[in-house]
Amino acid sequence: MVLWGQGDVHVHIAIDRLKNRHNLAVVGQPATVPYKETIRRGTEQHSRFKRQSGGHGQFADCTIQVKAMPRGSGFVFADKVVGGAIPRNYIPAVEEGVVEALQHGPLGFPVVDLAVELITGQFHAVDSSDMAFKTAGRQAIQEALPKCEPFLLEPITAVDISVPNAFTARVQRLVSGRRGQLLGYDAKEDWPGWDVVRAHLPQSELHDLIVELRSLTLGVGSFAHKFDHMAELTGRPAEKVIASRSQEAAQ
């Protein structure tokens, strides 16, 4: 469960109330930013899973085509197999293996905005199984993604910041200093002397925004936000995120 508040103090007070008033054992940690990753270009990848251990073995062979998709497309799987190279009953297993592998991409985050086409393969009348084709599909996408120039996506929020107009210029500088994109500002309806500054701001920059905003506006500024879109994250910020995820995975 994600608990939002106007700064750390607000959240800590709410957690203390849950513990002290309602006798709930609460374990809290900072909310993680839901980064994703996607690919810059496509590739073709062949994978074969073969295992023999006495009795029936395991065999599956598949070739997939990976393609980059426009932002917001999600994931698309297409069956392009012809001539019965892979029996129809095994194709959902390949897709299942691909989907499973996409939950943790080369950079450590879920992979989105790509299409995977199953174009051909081979099977064995005795040794092939759903599990074998699932494994082959998972191996194929895991081997393909590093070749597709993966990069990070970060969530961008649409933010409306309400402040007295004497502080509008300060708030605009605050947004720019947090990697934000200013969209403009208007007089706040039915609030004489107040403005609403509209901007796009990375979600990672929201966690202590209220503290600095209140400091700049003598304690009266406030903001509302909602998810807007995913955008590419590059440079030093991306390096920090990837390094942090690598450390978490190593623990």
Brief description of this entry?
With about 250 residues, this protein is of the alpha+beta class. Helix content is about 30%, strand content about 30%.
Mean pLDDT: 93
| Strand content range | 25-35%
The number of helical elements comes to 6
Number of strands: 9
Name the helix and strand elements from N-terminus to C-terminus, one letter apiece: HEEEEHEHEHEEHEH
* Name of the CATH first level of the largest domain: Alpha Beta
Largest sheet: 5 strands, antiparallel
Q: Give Rg in angstroms.
A: 25 Å
CATH names the topology of the largest domain as Ribosomal Protein S5, domain 2
The percent range for helix content is 25-40%
What sort of overall outline do the alpha carbons produce when their principal axes are compared? elongated
What is the domain tally?
2
Stretches with pLDDT under 50, minimum 5 residues: none
State the end-to-end CA separation: 24 Å
Structural class of the secondary structure composition? alpha+beta
Secondary-structure map with pairings?
Blueprint lengths: L7 H13 L15 E4 L3 E9 L6 E11 L6 E5 L11 H11 L12 E9 L7 H15 L5 E15 L3 H10 L3 E7 L6 E9 L6 H8 L5 E12 L1 H16 L1
Parallel strand pairs: 4-5
Antiparallel strand pairs: 1-6, 2-3, 3-5, 6-8, 6-9, 7-8
Explained architecture:
The protein is α+β, with helices and mostly antiparallel strands. It has 2 domains: 37-148, Ribosomal Protein S5, domain 2 (2-Layer Sandwich), CATH 3.30.230.10; 151-251, Alpha-Beta Plaits (2-Layer Sandwich). The chain is 29% helix and 32% strand. It has 6 helices and 9 strands; from the N terminus they run H-E-E-E-E-H-E-H-E-H-E-E-H-E-H. Strands 1, 6, 7, 8 and 9 form a 5-stranded antiparallel sheet that branches. It has a 4-stranded mixed sheet with strand order 2-3-5-4. Helix 2 (91-101) packs across helix 3 (130-144). The longest helix has 16 residues, at 235-250. The radius of gyration is 25 Å and the shape is elongated. The relative contact order is 0.16.
